[in-house]
Specification:
A hairpin with a 2-residue loop joins strand 1 and strand 2. By secondary structure, this protein is mostly helical. It is globular. Helix 1 crosses helix 3 and helix 4 packs antiparallel against helix 5. The chain is 53% helix and 10% strand. The chain has 6 helices and 4 strands, in the order H-H-H-H-E-E-H-E-E-H. The chain has a single domain, classed as Jann2411-like fold (Orthogonal Bundle), CATH 1.10.3300.10. The chain binds zinc ion (2 copies). The site of one zinc ion has 6 residues, from strand 1 and strand 2.
Length: 178
Amino acid sequence: MLFAHDTSLALAGTAALVNTAAAPETLRTVGELAEFLDRWEWTGARAGDEAELEEVRALRSRLRELWEVDDERRVAIVNALLRENGALPQLVRHGTWSWHLHAMPDDAPLAARMAVESAMAMADVIRAGETDRLATCAAPDCEGVVVDLSKNRSRKYCSTACTNRVAAAAYRARRHGD
Ligand SMILES: [Zn+2]
Ligand SMILES: [Zn+2]
């Protein structure tokens, strides 16, 4: 296993959050945010209002930067996110989850908790020297980000939709080549 399970989940969740801003936008309403949080099994307080939605939406460009910059800049962003939000790592367990780290209290604002969770996971990637696993989607016309946690570094696309789209295009190209 490359990273601890909570780190892997947080990295995949961070990429998914960033990709909600990749066209088409999929974080348009409070309801869509609630769906996203449920899908990624977010626990803790939720305001469920427009202000919270705006805070989460605004966080995405900053998280996207983590995919686009060099390690020096990446470290600066991670440290800033941890510092600004007053991160304080604590071991916790809840539900079916064994001991893992939460660096923010459960009642802290959602966007702050998302920022810190992403920063903590990214800190693991940086410490492990694995930042080359952060990539952009190889599908044409897709601006999605990818975090490749596969053993053989085979993940190229941000979503199964992109994987299928590229496979279908390759199939069509082969048929027309016959
Ligand atoms: Zn937890
Ligand atoms: Zn894609």
